[in-house]
Write a structure and sequence with these properties.
A hairpin with a 7-residue loop joins β1 and β2. The chain is of the alpha+beta class. It has 15 helices and twelve strands. It has two domains: 102 residues, Phosphorylase Kinase, domain 1, CATH 3.30.200.20; 300 residues, Alpha-Beta Complex (Aminoglycoside 3'-phosphotransferase, Chain: A, domain 2), CATH 3.90.1200. The strands form four sheets. Strands 1-2-3-7-6 form a five-stranded antiparallel β-sheet, with helices on both faces. A three-stranded antiparallel β-sheet has the order 8-10-11. It has a two-stranded antiparallel sheet with strand order 4-5. 43% of the residues are buried. Bound molecules: 5-S-methyl-5-thio-alpha-D-ribofuranose and magnesium ion (MG).
Length: 429
């Protein structure tokens, strides 16, 4: 039976052949590209899971165009997906730009009917995941991403917003249910049951996949995380904050692709960063030219991860101390003799709880990239399946412990040390 795809009056997927005519009617875009539209070079370059992405270059400059398809590109027309995801992406990008300035690409034009966003062309930026696989160094990244997370999460939370504004944001993002459902299924459910779309490095990891499906402690842990994801509207999340959603150079960082944005638990975004750094750490055993050749880079990855979390924590706390404009923790309740001390202790406790959530979500995000549908090229590009499986088995083992024993990882250094230990102790899958 074929699936019914969304249709919308005026919607048609663009192609390299149709796009020049469309863009030629947008003066701002014409001014950037320059020259005659017949001379513009247009290429479809999308290698993500969901959308069309075009790079358009004219004699003066370039733009990027992203358009939603009415289905999941990775799987095909058998998996319909609403075009409204472009609406949520546009809304999130607009809010992120307001809160973080140049840490997101500039929007040049938005067409709700075509589910299409024209953005500044990020050049010579590359997808961070590709840079990290090649052991590239990004000295500004930890500072930039910790600012991005602190500002987007803090200023959309009850610590900064009044209850009416917070509820208005919840309402504005509440319709992004189809994208949330992808996460609910692919991250929190499918890897722990037999599911048609699951895949893993086989036969090497067959026994792991079977064990993970029979693990009661793990199923309880992932179900608790899923409940938090479903029910905890803490702040506006990017919703898919992995290293494939970041384009950068050593000097400039941009966070892209917030189509999974919704009001959810902060630890989900922070956990995505932790997960992808830990996966990258383990993956270098599959990429290094000779054993030990990437020792220094591996340590750099862990050092960067530690700086990201500690900077995020400090920046978030500073925002709270200086911008407590929300309805949570009313100032009038903390004005007594020990009021400020009690409030500061509570701020620290809040960050400790957020860290525990982050550890758990990171574990779930690591497991989905190894046993679920959508994998990371950090691991997928390792051609030797035995080497890849060893990297993956280490990541799976750490991820399981981070979910089941999240409370025993008191600091980001505990995660880093556990990763180092596993590399030494687990010789093979
Ligand atoms: C079917 S979409 C699979 C994954 O791609 C996106 O990048 C999200 O991570 C999603 O879970
Ligand atoms: Mg994406």
């Amino acid at each position: 039976m074929s699936a019914t795809l969304e249709t919308r009056l005026g919607y048609a997927p663009q192609s390299a052949a149709t796009l020049a005519a469309y863009l030629s009617c947008i003066p701002r875009v014409c001014a950037i590209l320059g020259g005659d539209p017949s001379a513009w070079r247009i290429e479809e370059v999308g290698d993500g899971n969901l959308n069309l992405v075009f790079i358009v270059k004219g004699p003066m400059g370039g733009v990027a165009v992203k358009q939603a398809l009415p289905y999941v590109r990775l799987v095909g027309e058998s998996w319909p997906l609403p075009l409204s995801r472009a609406h949520y992406e546009h809304m999130a990008l607009t809010e992120q730009a307001r809160l973080t300035g140049r840490l997101v690409p500039e929007i040049l034009h938005y067409d709700e009917t075509l589910a299409l966003i024209v953005m500044e062309l990020l050049e010579p930026h590359i997808i961070m995941r590709r840079g990290m696989i090649a052991a590239a160094v990004y000295p500004k990244f930890a500072d930039d991403i910790s600012t991005f997370m602190a500002r987007t999460l803090y200023f959309t939370s009850d610590l900064a917003l009044t209850a009416d504004r917070k509820k208005a944001m919840i309402a504005a993002f509440a319709g992004n249910t189809a994208l949330c459902k992808i996460t609910e299924d692919l991250i929190f459910t499918d890897p722990y049951r037999v599911a048609e779309l699951n895949r893993w490095t086989s036969p090497q990891l067959d026994a792991y996949a079977a064990r993970w499906r029979e693990d009661g402690d793990l199923k309880v842990a992932v179900s608790r995380l899923k409940l938090k994801f479903l029910s905890c509207a803490e702040a506006m999340l990017h919703g898919d904050l992995h290293t494939g959603s970041i384009m950068l150079t050593p000097d400039d960082t941009r966070v892209i692709d917030p189509e999974f944005a919704f009001m959810g638990p902060m630890g989900f975004d922070a956990g995505a960063i932790v997960a992808n750094f830990v996966i990258n750490y383990f993956s270098h055993d599959g990429h290094e030219e000779a054993p030990g050749a990437r020792d220094a880079y591996r340590e750099r990855v862990l050092a960067m991860l530690e700086t990201i979390w500690t900077s995020f924590r400090e920046k978030f706390l500073d925002l709270w101390r200086n911008n407590a404009t929300g309805d949570a923790y009313p100032t009038s309740l903390f004005q007594g003799v020990d009021g400020e001390a009690r409030l500061e202790a509570e701020r620290q406790a809040y960050m400790d709880r957020l860290w525990a959530d982050t550890v758990g979500f990171a574990g779930a995000k690591m497991i989905r990239r190894i046993l679920g549908l959508a994998h990371n090229i950090d691991l997928e590009l390792i051609a030797d399946k035995d080497r890849r499986a060893t990297c993956e088995a280490r990541a799976l083992t750490l991820a399981r412990d981070m979910m089941v024993n999240a409370g025993s990882y008191r600091s980001v250094a505990d995660v880093a040390n556990a990763a180092r230990r596993l590399r030494v102790e687990m010789k093979s899958y």
